[in-house]
Specification:
Length: 603
């Protein structure tokens, strides 16, 4: 916001240092914590230390202070600042409070939805998420994944990275074949109506098949023979799939489409738009070629026919202690593994899509797997390996207990979302009888889904979490609706203000009056939004933004309760506060968007 002033000052500091032979390496600014005034600060310890290193006899802290004082004299009081001081080797520049407040509010009102957007970073990021296995249904754990990934994608994109959203469904494997087998044997030709019903049905088939194929205690010899016969059929199906048998392949593609259709419908509902779809089945062939390449380059060791093809990662990296272990990349029967396919996939991401940074949003339990993948990519010579990142996430359970797909104890996302919207709707109907049925529905959808999204993003991604619907839907505490409600309150003040709101936001706001602590806190938080975007994006942590949004909403709610806006005595103050309300509303909306949450005008 003060980029221009900062640049002018930096220029002056550089001139001063050159003239005085001071070996300045760089100038880093930090915001000063608010203490009645806002300001920025930089220090000269580095410069003093550089002098010491070059052989001059200097006392570093003392010399840093000397330089700071010299700079202060050289600068005088630059435009936009109220005073400059040199303390303990630091140079502190203070803004006049009214000027700072004006800049902050003016910037938000000018940039609107772009407020907080970072300058282009010149790097391309791929975020891979929303990649459940097919022939299964979308459960609450998949939802956590999808929301984390989408929030992260929005964050890095907004921070200035060119961003590609990718998915990579696991569309083949024994689980998939198990569903194909039971479908073909007992349900051929059947097909439930409805996208969600059809997708969910596949999960039911999977559960049923697992029961038929699982060894039981006290099994009679007949039952055992039956089960073994079923298993043989399943294995035969897998063999046929591998051999490209047209019947099995057609059955596979058709049922796979049922899952994908359900997935697409859910992503649409969550406002998630994937750019590139990769499938596990498609990287199997490339994976086989990679194995040969890695053997030829001496990275992998071929122990066939007695053993598999392996990469001794620790040994290759020269590590004494066991860390990444030894990874198998081809079984002795010539089949590839999950890991091998990930190597092939990474190569495609780097080479075909020109990806500089590659992020994988996947269950934390796959942590070792990704460490191995990234290290093999490094051994293979991909410079991007360093910028690969596994964003892990923990398990989601409901107070009722844990899930188990094999047992059919799965919490389907669709059920949870429907229930959340239903509950909001029942409260809504009492609270806002003046809304039309359709509007009420739309609002309830925004609030219900907002509550779910915030419940996922406001906890440490690596930790398991228990999803408590009542807590998530509450208007109090760290919830989506609490933040959305701040936006609604701001909207209602602006609505009530009528034409005055337009006047307030089209003129240069004037904060030349005694600001209350609530206003100061609110302005302070608004001004931190761009830096928060940058931090959340650099650290790949949506939680940083989730926490910020809550703090901002809290600041707004207390401002709302304590500070009169339309009732303020003077018109100048009314206008300034209205502009602040508009800026707060915009910033809350921008923050919510990065959390994949809608900002409603009414609720
Ligand atoms: N489909 C996998 C699963 O459900 C996740 C894929 C993760 N991505 C990857 N590149 N391995 O566990």
């Amino acid at each position: 916001m003060f980029d221009h002033e900062r640049e002018v000052i930096e220029e002056k500091i550089k001139v001063f240092c050159t003239e005085n032979d001071i070996p300045l390496t760089s100038i880093e600014w930090k915001p000063l914590p608010f203490s009645g005034e806002w300001g920025i600060s930089t220090s000269f310890f580095q410069a003093a230390a550089n002098e010491a290193r070059s052989g001059k006899k200097v006392n570093v802290p003392q010399r840093a202070q000397e330089i700071a004082e010299g700079v202060r004299e050289h600068l005088g009081t630059p435009e936009g600042f109220s005073r400059v001081e040199a303390v303990k080797g630091y140079l502190n520049l203070y803004f006049s409070t009214a000027e700072y407040a004006r800049r902050v509010v003016e910037t938000v009102l000018r940039d609107k939805a772009d407020f907080g957007r970072g300058a282009p970073k010149g790097e391309r990021v791929m975020v891979e998420y929303a990649q459940p296995n097919t022939h299964h249904s979308f459960h609450i754990g998949h939802y956590r994944n999808a929301i984390l990934g989408e929030s992260l994608a929005r964050l890095v994109e907004f921070a200035g990275f060119e961003t590609i959203r990718a998915s990579y469904p696991g569309d083949i494997g024994l689980g998939v074949i198990t569903v194909l087998w039971i479908y073909d044997k007992f349900y051929k030709g059947q097909e439930p109506e409805g996208i969600h019903e059809r997708g969910q049905w596949l999960l039911k088939l999977y559960v049923e098949a697992t029961q038929l194929l699982e060894p039981k205690e006290d099994e009679t010899p007949e039952a055992r023979a039956q089960r073994e016969a079923y298993d043989a059929e399943r294995r035969e199906m897998l063999r046929k799939w591998d051999a490209g048998d047209p019947y099995v392949r057609e059955l596979w593609l058709r049922t796979r489409e049922w899952s994908l259709e359900e997935l697409r419908a859910i992503l649409e509902m969550l406002d998630i738009h994937i750019d590139v779809w990769f499938y596990e089945s498609e990287v199997d062939e490339p994976a086989k070629e990679i194995v040969e390449e890695l053997i030829a380059r001496g990275i992998a060791e071929d122990e066939r026919p007695e053993g598999p093809v392996i990469v001794r990662i620790d040994e290759k990296l020269g590590l004494k202690k066991e860390k990444y272990r030894t990874a198998v990349i081809l079984r002795s029967d010539g089949t590839t593994l999950y890991l091998t396919k990930d190597l092939a996939l990474a190569k495609i991401k780097f080479e075909k899509y020109g990806v500089d940074r590659s992020i994988y949003v996947v269950d934390t339990r796959q942590s070792l797997h990704f460490q191995q993948v990234f290290k093999i990519l490094e051994l293979w010579g991909f410079p991007q390996a360093e910028k690969c990142y596994h964003l892990g996430y923990g398990f989601v359970s409901l107070p009722e207990g844990a899930m188990s797909a094999r047992r059919g104890r799965v919490v389907l996302f669709k059920d949870v979302a429907d229930e959340a919207v239903r509950r909001v709707l029942s409260v809504e109907s009492e609270k806002s009888p003046d809304l039309s049925e359709e509007e009420r529905r739309a609002v309830a959808q925004k609030i219900g889904l907002g509550a779910l999204a915030y419940a996922m993003l406001s906890v440490d991604n690596n930790k398991d979490t228990v999803f408590d619907m009542d807590a998530a839907l509450s208007f109090e505490g760290r919830t989506g609706p609490y933040i959305q409600n701040a936006h609604v309150r701001a909207a209602s003040i602006l609505r009530k203000a009528g034409p005055l709101a337009g006047r307030a936001t089209s003129r240069t706001p004037d904060f030349d009056y005694n600001l209350t602590p609530h206003e100061i806190r609110l302005i302070d938080l608004i001004s931190r939004f761009p830096a928060t975007v940058e931090q959340a994006a650099q650290e790949y942590r949506p939680l940083v933004m989730a926490t910020y949004a809550y703090d901002l909403a809290t600041a707004f709610h207390s401002f709302y309760h304590a500070v009169p806006v339309l009732q303020a005595e003077e018109e100048g103050i009314r206008l300034a506060r209205l502009a602040l309300v508009a800026a707060a509303k915009q910033t809350i909306a921008n923050a919510l968007r990065l959390l994949v949450i809608h900002a409603p005008e009414v609720m």
